User: Fold this.
Amino acid sequence: TGLCYNGTPMDRLISGAAIVILVCFPHGSFGTCIVIVQSKDTIWLATDSKQSNSDFTAFRYACKIRKDRAFYWAAAGPFYLDLATGFDVENLVKTVKYRGTLKQKMRAFIEQTKAPLAAELLSVGKDDPITYRKIITGEKALLEVVFVGMENGAPTLIWVNFTAHEIKQKLIVDGEPIVAAPPRTNSNFGVLGMGEYVAATTYLHGN
Assistant:
């Protein structure tokens, strides 16, 4: 799925970044691939569209770029929706208040996500201690989320990379909003990847 945002209504399209994902996303890999390309006045947001159940025995195709009122968002990581525990990233985004800047909305999302995300990681850790250990040591990503919207007449990109660590046997989940500064000219491009993104961003940097 690819979206282009440059101040006009955001329309679904096959952008250059989306084509890169179709070409480079490893068909044998499991996990979301997000690629964001940013110029002075345009943001391209692209994801893969493959979803699976928890044991990778069933698959479907779906749009992973979501719209929540005034902004668009996407997320990558092993924790997105857990029917058993009720953890749901989409519902957490929906509870963000409509008013405020995009950064304020991201900060509110972070604060209300820390506790349920920590509880979800602890729950998963009981059955999968290897994944738990990889996440708290930084070997594996916990959850990455990007918001894209219009502010002051310009497309704005903000993201967060949630991390987890233990202090005195207590699990702590952290995250800070990161605002991407756009390139100074349209001849320069910034590239950001999340999830299973390495092949796609390597291709973009090389071309």
Notes: The two ends are 21 Å apart (CA to CA).
